[in-house]
């Protein structure tokens, strides 16, 4: 999450003035305490989403753990008293969830004193002790909760010695967020300190979570956040459905949540260089990390439009800052990237989009998804599949008299998204980790991704004015973008191509330009083919498409074919020479209808021979002959007259399969030759 400090550092004078005005206005929106005539209340919109998701995938997916190593004169009886006081004080820790009269509700239970669970690990030492701590913490973190019964938290002490313990907290996300752990630890520190001095003050909260949820629900249902909803619908209406990362395993029919995290450290010197660049570019470390991740995702996916999710604290009211509960919301940072733009330009774009997003962050993400009216996919999360989360060391650190406190990582072995980057800004560097879905990525891929990310950090801080294309070329894992341009509907060739590309483990992005745009795609620098010129262009050309609607006896037939053939040779050669691109030209066989017209057939064959001969002279153009491929696969009948007439789909499935297979074999052989 971007901190308030980061936000303020990147604001202009006009934006600061607007923020002050907005802050004054927000104080007028005081949250009123809801009457406690009942212990049941409507769920907040965020809780509703969690409740809904939990019905489909329990098993600890939404558990939020945190673990702390405590060293010193630790009084466990005081620690137990303090934790009891926290639970008594915060209604969210005494809340369970169920439906009442078919309405999803949150139900506040009365406080009951509990005993602190203690696990004895004194017999372990050294590496065995560290391994045992990880094992126990992982088991605690993964253990599911029953939302209808509660409690929805677990507090454990792992006793290592008389002066060393691990305090492990595991809470369900429906009652807490990352900020909440700072609240919990500050309450523990303050309560522990008071009890050491004989003070046991019972402070009350004027506002609890249910007061916020009722207030926020009224704001949404009253239309006060409609402008934010309209902003997001306008912003994301053309967002891509999914990112095209180089997954190691095929995505299943439903989303899975098995995961793992690989940790790494960005050293202090590198962070200092990043910070200096941030100041020069009028941005924050948050903007730098988000921009670097966006660049990495572009390099791995070759997508020119990217959506990355990021959480916002959403605690704009002063009284919310000291509450435990689910306030966090997710916003989407959408970027549009071209290989010719510089990283500095990308940084500015990301920074500005972040500031816009955070100014429209109160409307729940689920409301945005509903408003977009997009088709829900069971295979992946909507709108974005990559998440970035940033925290500050100050949010995790806490001071307890006579006790040293150190944060310990906890492995939950789950992943809510395809890929998430978690980063904590420390005094001596950045502690980070890529959490990834193990049903999609192999460990080696993520480890290489870490090296590529660290390399990009180094390169962009050295010279942010280099182009995106230059940065992408430095990545170790290359993805081949293949752009199909055809004179007819070529979509059916995609399935066999994808089959063989996966079989041969080629990292690829396969995309199709609208058909009947052959010349336009070759000459238009804004077209899909030119924008992806560093990949492989696949031109599927059936010459009879140039003379559609012309009579076979028309005197213009020869002139049109000759003129278009000459023009095609010139355009294809110019495109290849200009962009130094690799192109596969596939000369597709004529229809049965044309093959019965002697003169038309002769003219088409004549033009084909000329195109093939001239294009073959260019070393970057490979020519495949569709008639020969039909013979190779023993396809005596392959034309689809009805499909051609109704949808410009001229071939049977068997021929599209043969075509796709030969195209991939040509690509594979070219790749093998280029690697020696």
From TrEMBL:
Residues 44-472 form the Condensation domain. InterPro entries: CAT-like_dom_sf, Condensation_dom, SGNH_hydro_sf. Keywords: Repeat. Pfam families: Condensation (PF00668). The keyword NAD does not apply. The keyword Repeat applies. SUPFAM superfamilies: CoA-dependent acyltransferases. This is Condensation domain-containing protein.
């Amino acid at each position: 999450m971007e901190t308030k400090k980061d936000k303020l550092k990147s604001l202009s004078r006009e934006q600061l003035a607007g923020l002050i005005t907005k802050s004054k206005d927000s104080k007028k929106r005081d949250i009123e305490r809801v009457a406690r005539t009942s212990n049941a209340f409507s769920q907040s919109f965020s809780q509703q989403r969690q409740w809904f998701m939990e019905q489909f995938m329990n098993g600890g997916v939404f558990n939020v753990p945190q673990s702390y190593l405590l060293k010193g004169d630790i009084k466990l009886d005081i620690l137990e008293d303090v934790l009891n006081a926290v639970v008594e004080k915060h209604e969210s820790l005494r809340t369970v969830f169920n439906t009442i009269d078919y309405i999803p509700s949150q139900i506040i239970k009365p406080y009951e004193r509990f005993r602190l669970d203690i696990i004895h690990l004194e017999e372990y030492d050294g590496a065995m002790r560290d391994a045992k701590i990880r094992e126990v913490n992982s088991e605690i973190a993964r253990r599911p909760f029953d939302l209808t019964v509660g409690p929805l938290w677990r507090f454990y002490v792992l006793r290592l010695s008389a002066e060393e313990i691990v305090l492990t907290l595991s809470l369900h996300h429906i009652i807490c967020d990352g900020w909440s752990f700072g609240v919990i630890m500050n309450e523990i520190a303050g309560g522990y300190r008071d009890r050491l001095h004989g003070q046991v003050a019972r402070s009350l909260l004027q506002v609890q979570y249910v007061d916020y949820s009722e207030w926020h629900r009224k704001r949404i249902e009253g239309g006060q956040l409609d402008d934010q909803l309209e902003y997001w619908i306008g912003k994301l209406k053309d967002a891509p459905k999914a990112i095209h990362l180089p997954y190691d395993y095929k995505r299943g029919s439903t989303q899975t949540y098995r995961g793992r995290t690989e940790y790494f450290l960005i050293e202090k010197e590198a962070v200092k260089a990043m910070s200096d660049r941030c100041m020069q570019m009028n941005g924050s470390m948050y903007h730098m990390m988000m921009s670097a991740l966006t660049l990495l995702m572009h390099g791995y996916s070759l997508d020119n439009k990217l959506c990355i999710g990021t959480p916002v604290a959403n605690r704009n009211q002063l009284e919310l800052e000291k509450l435990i509960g689910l306030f966090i919301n997710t916003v989407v940072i959408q970027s549009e990237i071209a290989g010719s733009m510089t990283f500095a330009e990308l940084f500015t774009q990301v920074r500005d989009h972040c500031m816009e997003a955070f100014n429209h962050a109160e409307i729940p993400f689920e409301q945005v998804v509903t408003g977009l009216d997009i088709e829900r996919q069971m295979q992946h999360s909507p709108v974005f599949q990559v998440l970035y989360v940033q925290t500050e060391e100050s949010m995790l650190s806490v001071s307890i008299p006579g006790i040293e406190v150190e944060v310990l990582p906890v492995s939950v072995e789950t992943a809510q998204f395809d890929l998430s980057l978690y980063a904590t800004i420390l005094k001596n560097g950045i502690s980070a980790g890529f959490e990834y879905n193990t049903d999609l990525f192999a460990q080696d891929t993520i480890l290489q991704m870490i090296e590529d990310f660290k390399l990009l950090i180094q390169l962009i801080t050295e010279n942010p004015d280099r182009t995106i294309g230059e940065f992408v070329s430095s990545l170790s894992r290359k993805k081949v973008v293949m752009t199909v341009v055809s004179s007819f509907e070529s979509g059916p060739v995609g399935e066999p191509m994808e089959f063989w590309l996966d079989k041969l483990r080629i990292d690829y992005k396969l995309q199709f330009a609208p058909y009947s745009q052959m010349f336009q795609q070759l000459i238009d620098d804004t077209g899909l083919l030119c924008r992806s010129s560093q990949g492989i262009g696949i031109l599927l050309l059936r010459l009879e498409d140039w003379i559609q609607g012309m009579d076979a006896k028309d005197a213009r037939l020869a002139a049109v074919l000759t003129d278009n053939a000459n023009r095609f040779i010139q355009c294809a050669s110019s495109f290849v020479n200009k962009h130094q691109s690799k192109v596969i030209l596939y000369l597709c066989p004529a229809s049965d209808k044309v093959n019965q017209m002697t003169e038309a057939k002769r003219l088409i064959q004549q033009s084909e021979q000329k195109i093939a001969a001239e294009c073959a002279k260019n070393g970057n153009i490979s020519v495949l002959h569709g008639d020969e491929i039909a013979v190779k696969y023993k396809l005596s009948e392959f034309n689809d007259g009805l499909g051609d007439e109704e949808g410009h789909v001229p071939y049977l499935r068997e021929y599209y399969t043969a075509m796709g297979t030969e195209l991939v074999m040509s690509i594979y052989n070219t790749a093998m030759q280029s690697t020696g």
